[in-house]
Structure prediction request, 225 residues.
Amino acid sequence: MKYDYKLYEPSWCPGCGNYMIRTALKQALEELKIEPHEVVISSGIGQAAKMPHYIKVNGFNGLHGRALPPAIGIKLANKDLKVIVESGDGDTYGEGGNHFIHTIRRNIDIAHFVHDNQIYGLTKGQASPTTAMGQKTTLQFDGVKVEPLQPLALAMTMGAGFVARGFSGDIPHLVELMKEAINYKGYALVDILQPCVVWNKVNTFAWYKERVYHLPEDYDYTDRE
Prediction:
C-alpha cells in the first residue's frame, strides 16, 4: 500500500536543503509502512520547524527551542505512536539546549532530526551554535569569536545510544539513517548537514560534496583520533 503524506507545498527558498530532508522523511515512512495517523511530528520555531505543515501526519508546532518536551509528553501518553522531532541547529542546540541534554538522559523513544545549516535562517542569518569560528554573518560582521558546539560529541558523552550524521544532498543514505532512527528503541539523534542557500554562503552544496563521506561498516567508533 502506498501512503499519501503530501500536504501543502513548502514555502522554503528554492534550493533549500529542507526539501530533500522532507523527501527523505516521506520515503522513510513509506518504506517502513507507517500509516500517517501513526506518526506525530513535533517542532519548534524556524525553517526546519515548518515540517509538520508539509507532511500529512499528526503535528505539534510549539515554541522556539521547545520541540522536545511536547514530544516526550506525546510518547508517554501514547507509546504506540511514532514520535519524530524536526528542528534546526539554533532551535535544538541554542534555545533548546537544556531540553536536548535532558532528553538524552531520559532516553525516551523519539527520533530527532536536526536540520543543521550552521545559521539562523528564519531570523535572517545570525550565527547559530554550530557556526564555525571566524565565519562572518549578518550580525557577526567580523566573524564568530567562539568555537562551535559539537552536538554529536556532546550526545555521545551523555551516553546517547543512537547518534548519526547525514547530508541532505545524499537522500538514499539519509533515508536509511531515518529508518534506523525511527525504529530505534530510545532517543535517536540524526544531525543533518544542509545548506542555507540565502544566509550561509560558506557551507554550500559544493562545499559539502567535497567533504562529506560515508563511514565504513566496520568503523571503530571508539577511536577518538
Notes: Residues 39 and 82 are 5 Å apart (CA to CA). The two ends are 46 Å apart (CA to CA). The longest helix spans residues 18-31. Strands lie at 39-43, 58-61, 82-88, 111-116, 162-167, 188-193.
